[in-house]
Amino acid sequence: MLEIKNLHVKLEEEDKIILKGVNLSIGAGQVHAIMGPNGSGKSTLSYVLAGREGYAVTEGSALLEGTELLEMEPEERAAVGLFLAFQYPVEIPGVGNMTFLRTAVNAQRKARGEDEMSAGDFLKVVRAKAKALQIDAEMMKRPVNVGFSGGEKKRNEILQMAMLEPKMCVLDETDSGLDVDAMKLVADGVNALRGAGRSFLVITHYQRLLDHIAPDVVHIMADGRIVKSGGPELALEVENNGYAGILAEVE
What we know:
The protein is α/β, with parallel strands linked by helices and 251 residues long. Helix content is 40%, strand content 28%. The protein has 10 helices and 12 strands.
């Protein structure tokens, strides 16, 4: 599904190298988790995949089902099936949640040469998906993320993901600032979207999220590279012993 090869990235403003040769292969239907100390490059990887400005790719590639993402504009990456859930979802005052969702869904359908979804069909689908995520009707009427709690913002992002039906979902510390109940609700939403045609890259600091979203593979990132990969037990090792032992192994 996603194939990242020898990815080198620098921060343009500071001319600082952040990613120093990331290699990552995520198969269709797989869930991979990336953990690592602060400053290791985890969030930078998600930003670069999504096409955020301010980062210069100096070497390497990122292929989604064989298509080079790094040569595309952000909206083109979304149209081919990439979705990024932010650590801190942005507020969009003056734009209603329903309007935003329908515009996004139809923009992607149009980019793929599909017919736009009618108002009636859209309402039917969005109400069913919102109900499953315990998002009430009042929340749907409000401007995007304005006045939402941390948990509501994250649930709203999972709703966006459910409506857009991406192939590759990147969750950048989506557990940040969530209480246990909100995290479980978000995790349930993610798990409901798991399937053979959709893969996930979950970036997190904490094992607790991975208790709810069981990953197939866990990667440890340090100093701009993936230094170790393994099964879910690797996340438990980090939880119990921290990163020091793992980093000592690879030095």
